[in-house]
Design goal:
Elements lengths: L5 E3 L17 E6 L2 E6 L12 H11 L1
Antiparallel strand pairs: 1-2, 2-3
The structure holds zinc ion (ZN).
Length: about 60
Amino acid sequence: MKVFDNILQDSSLPLKPCPFCGSDKVYFVETGQKYGVVCFGCMVSTESKNTKETAQKQWNRRA
Ligand SMILES: [Zn+2]
């Protein structure tokens, strides 16, 4: 199980529901200086990115 520094919610960067389990418990996480998106329904995650915007784009492209 990964350990995250912070779980972030950012209403200005909407995230699509999880494509794998359908959960909307999808949040940004901060790890070190990087950001990712994690589904807390099934714990799938994107790679860590330098910005939340990049992580959002990667998530929403897959979702
Ligand atoms: Zn999921």
